[in-house]
């Protein structure tokens, strides 16, 4: 039976809701108890209120100051303190807890993940963008604080589970699996007409809008390649991506003797979240189970980088090092959100990323120093401005 004092950053999103849902199921099964210290959300006040009423955290924070009154009204009489704005989220992230879930989407989650990394607790990291922007420094910061970082992204959770942490020299390569997204079999000519509704309808995983677009462009697997390189200290050439449409094998480690270990599970984020929550133990909860006989077969194919160039761009950014991964991330975020806003066509997402990468360069700004987070966010802001200008250029030419 586990007991954890917990904070969930981004509790109202897909991963945040799965986390609280899982905690509910674990408590119902008598497998653990939780004390929630802080919950943070964005615009969805109704959901944040509902969660705070259920879990009675010490504080509930919305990112949006204009919604503070609504949050206060919703929690009147509950004894839950309320606050709003980025500074309040960052402060909540520094409150001492056993376990903190970083599940804010995008570079907006960097400062709070950075703050949480200094508390000495377990940082369950779903926010892959903060690793992409600040990976080595963030990992160093967690270590220095005496805490630990457990990846929540299903691929990295998989690798973490089969990786020889005490003998990394035994690893030949990492193999990340990718579902291939909803347009895996669509010809390139058809990709231009894709709508946001089609892009967010992922065949296997139910996720937030931005990561769903990233899955459709395969930028997600690009971000995950960079994430894996930092987490497992592996060069780009020893990280391979294979498309596996069933999303049952979540990733693999190939050893130097030719043996490959894979981690499998149903495509449900609660499984990697449960691993992070229980670590170093395993939690006996009513988990969804695999029925391999019913599945019948698992299939694999090589990714098509001609149709999904974002994957290659991410790999190039990783190889270039320095600020390039931050620029890749920022440009991709701007372009994916512009696509969701119908300001940009699907095929132009990767075009904006490529163009931004060619324009924003600089020396390796991100060191392990204390201000690596500030340095990364400066590059992020500069890349966003450039990506916006490129977007405007595309719109003017259309
Ligand atoms: P989501 O859009 O469903 O939720 C995002 C959360 O962040 C919400 O609580 C939202 O209120 C909050 N948020 C948004 N903008 C904010 C801001 N500016 N400041 C503070 N809070 C803000 O996203 P998601 O799908 O849950 O993904 C969250 C993170 O987890 C992403 O980094 C994603 O890449 C990663 N991830 C998600 C999945 C998945 O299955 N959804 C799987 C692996 C990794
Ligand atoms: Mg993933």
Write up what this structure looks like.
The protein is α/β, with parallel strands linked by helices and 398 residues long. It has three domains: 2-152, NAD(P)-binding Rossmann-like Domain (Rossmann fold), CATH 3.40.50.720; 157-266 and 291-307, no CATH class; 321-398, Rna Polymerase Sigma Factor, Chain: A (Orthogonal Bundle), CATH 1.10.1740. The chain is 47% helix and 16% strand. It is built from 17 helices and eleven strands. It has helices at 14-28, 45-55, 68-74, 86-94, 110-116, 128-144, 154-162, 188-191, 196-200, 209-217, 219-231, 270-278, 292-295, 310-320, 324-340, 346-359, 372-397; strands at 2-9, 32-41, 59-62, 81-84, 99-102, 122-125, 148-151, 171-178, 239-243, 249-255, 260-264. The chain is globular and about 55 Å long. Bound molecules: nicotinamide-adenine-dinucleotide and magnesium ion. The site of magnesium ion has 4 residues, from helix 7. Magnesium ion binds at residues 153-155, 224.
SSE inventory with pairings:
Blueprint lengths: L1 E8 L4 H15 L3 E10 L3 H11 L3 E4 L5 H7 L6 E4 L1 H9 L4 E4 L7 H7 L5 E4 L2 H17 L3 E4 L2 H9 L8 E8 L9 H4 L4 H5 L8 H9 L1 H13 L7 E5 L5 E7 L4 E5 L5 H9 L13 H4 L14 H11 L3 H17 L5 H14 L12 H26 L1
Parallel strand pairs: 1-2, 1-5, 2-3, 3-4, 5-6, 6-7, 8-9
Antiparallel strand pairs: 8-10, 10-11
Helix pairs in contact: 4-5, 5-6, 6-11, 6-15, 6-17, 10-15, 11-14, 14-15, 15-16, 15-17, 16-17
């Amino acid at each position: 039976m586990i007991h954890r004092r917990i904070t969930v950053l981004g509790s109202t999103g897909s991963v945040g809701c799965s986390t609280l849902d899982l905690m509910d199921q674990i408590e119902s099964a008598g497998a653990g108890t939780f004390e929630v210290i802080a919950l943070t959300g964005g615009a969805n006040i109704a959901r944040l209120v509902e969660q705070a009423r259920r879990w009675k955290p010490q504080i509930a924070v919305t990112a949006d100051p204009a919604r503070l009154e609504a949050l206060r009204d919703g929690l009147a009489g509950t004894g839950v303190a309320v606050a709003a704005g980025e500074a309040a989220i960052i402060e909540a992230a520094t409150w001492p807890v056993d376990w903190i879930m970083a599940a804010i989407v995008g570079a907006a989650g960097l400062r709070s993940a950075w703050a949480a990394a200094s508390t000495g607790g377990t940082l369950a990291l779903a926010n892959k963008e903060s690793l992409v922007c600040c990976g080595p420094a963030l990992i160093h910061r967690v270590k220095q604080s005496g805490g630990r970082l457990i990846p929540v992204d299903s691929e990295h959770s998989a690798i973490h589970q089969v990786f020889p942490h005490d003998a990394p020299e035994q690893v030949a390569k990492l193999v990340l699996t990718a579902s291939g997204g909803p347009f895996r079999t669509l010809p390139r000519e058809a990709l231009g007409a894709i709508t946001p509704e089609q892009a967010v309808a992922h065949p296997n995983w139910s996720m937030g809008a931005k990561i769903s677009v990233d899955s459709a462009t395969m930028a997600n697997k690009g971000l995950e390649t960079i994430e894996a390189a930092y987490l497992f200290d592996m060069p780009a050439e020893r990280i391979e991506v294979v498309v596996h449409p069933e999303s049952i094998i979540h990733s693999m480690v190939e050893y130097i003797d030719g043996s490959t270990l894979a981690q499998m599970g149903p495509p449900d984020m609660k499984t990697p979240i449960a691993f992070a929550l229980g670590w170093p133990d395993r939690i006996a909860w009513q988990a969804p189970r695999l029925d391999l006989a019913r599945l019948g077969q698992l299939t694999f194919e090589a990714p098509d980088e001609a149709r999904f160039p974002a994957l290659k761009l991410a790999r190039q950014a990783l190889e270039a090092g320095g600020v390039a991964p931050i620029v890749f991330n920022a440009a991709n975020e701007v372009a994916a959100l512009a696509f969701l806003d119908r300001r940009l066509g699907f095929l132009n997402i990767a075009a904006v990323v490529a163009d931004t990468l060619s324009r924003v360069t600089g020396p390796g700004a991100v060191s392990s120093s204390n201000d690596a987070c500030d340095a990364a966010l400066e590059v992020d802001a500069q890349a966003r401005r450039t990506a916006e200008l490129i977007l405007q250029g595309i719109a003017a030419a259309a």
